[in-house]
Amino acid sequence: MTFGQVLLVAVVAVPALGALATAVVPGDRAGRVVGTVAAALTLLATLPLVGGDHGWFGYGPRPAVQPWHQLDLQWVPGLDLRFHLGVDGISWPLVVLTALLTLLCCAYTLWRVPTGGGSGRALVALLLVVEVGILGTFLALDLVLFFLFFEVVLLPMYAVIAGWGGADRRRAARKFALYTLFGSVLLLVGVYVVVAAAGTADLVTLTGGTGLSRGTQLAAFTLLALAFAVKSPLWPLHSWLPDAHTQAPTVGSVILAGVLLKMGTYGLIRVAVGVAPEGARWAAPVLGVLAVAAILVGGLVCLAQDDLKRLIAYSSVGHMGFVLLGVATLTATGIQAALIGNIAHGVITGLLFFLAGAVKDRAHTGSLAELSGLRETAPRLAGLLGFAAVASLGLPGLAGFWGEAFAVVAAVQRGGPLWLTLAVLAALGGALTAAYFLRLLRRVTHGRPSPAVAGLAPGLARAELTAWAPLVLLALAVGLAPALVLSYASGPVEALLGVVP
Fold this sequence. Notes:
The chain has 501 residues and is mostly helical. The protein has helices at 3-24, 28-46, 92-109, 120-139, 143-152, 154-164, 169-198, 203-206, 214-231, 240-247, 250-260, 262-275, 277-303, 308-329, 332-363, 374-377, 379-392, 400-414, 417-445, 451-454, 462-480, 483-497, and strands at 69-76, 81-87.
């Protein structure tokens, strides 16, 4: 095995073994330490995966998927299934983001364990199992293997929400599970349609619609897009998200917003568009309309929200709408906007949920009406909340700007009355984003301190700063140098679009 193949195995195996070790090691804190070390080793294993034999731009027109590193082993010979993992410029930034956020969440539990669910080491073990599923989804180059990794996430995330969440956690967890199962059924049927028609599950071979008739591609894209729309989530299949975010513990919300939603948008790009490009071209206008509807609905609902975590949750609906609009344009600018929007949303919204959890832990409420005057008593926390809010609303120079601005640009480039109208409406949605985040800051940070805020200590714990600092720095770095993400993805995006009719 080459060094790259060893790393691919390690990226999936280390968190799996870490989860097992965390669960069996004696002592709660010792288990959390073991889990955090496993998460750190996983992050270290993801970093050298960059580049590989093809370099940053070593992509030709064929094949459409050229991994930097790949491992292709026989898995189930009778069904011609293979254990095929690979990484390229589309998946690598998401792999690193997943490993980073999981490490920050595991490290955060060393300082604070959510109440209600039991031991902290059980929570860390579940987070590592979720990490295995997400990383496997981003690395899988076999459709059946992709489906299996996609499903690994369901039960442990259900357990995180139901075990360590808020007062209404069980209802939220059931809703999350039911919606996800609905998407899983559609995904399974879509995978079956593709594999049965093409006679292979290999994504490298399938990309470009190889072996699939136009009718099969239309049916496959419809099934796959609906499945990924549930996970993204796309309006009107989004209603599980606010409840799950609101009730989940802080670390659960960070993983949900930061990387779990990206499984849907990544699957849409890699699998739905890649495997059924004719179906993608056919359905693009519908996807664009639904994406803009998500942007506007998310913004309007956020303007009416009075709960901090629920507002941030609904903001994800709008932000992911911009990502899906970029994908719907089927242009290089749009796909690039979607990819950097994925990373920016994961970094910024992960930071926002960390901060929302800190505010709620201190003030014992998430109601905006009871949180006024935060800057008077906890100026550092208020300052970080202000930074995350302006980053999320798309201030130029911060990470949130690039994905949303260039999704609109891509719609304009696509041209025609429909796409120009969608671009204008999406830009209006961007203005709504600014409005609701400025409203949030006015209600939470300004004014006279409310009784819930008046007694807060001004300082921040060292563990909090350790968990938040990498996200602050990444929001600045990606905002100032978007090439940190885009340079890796430009080649594979061009190759992918080369097979879209």
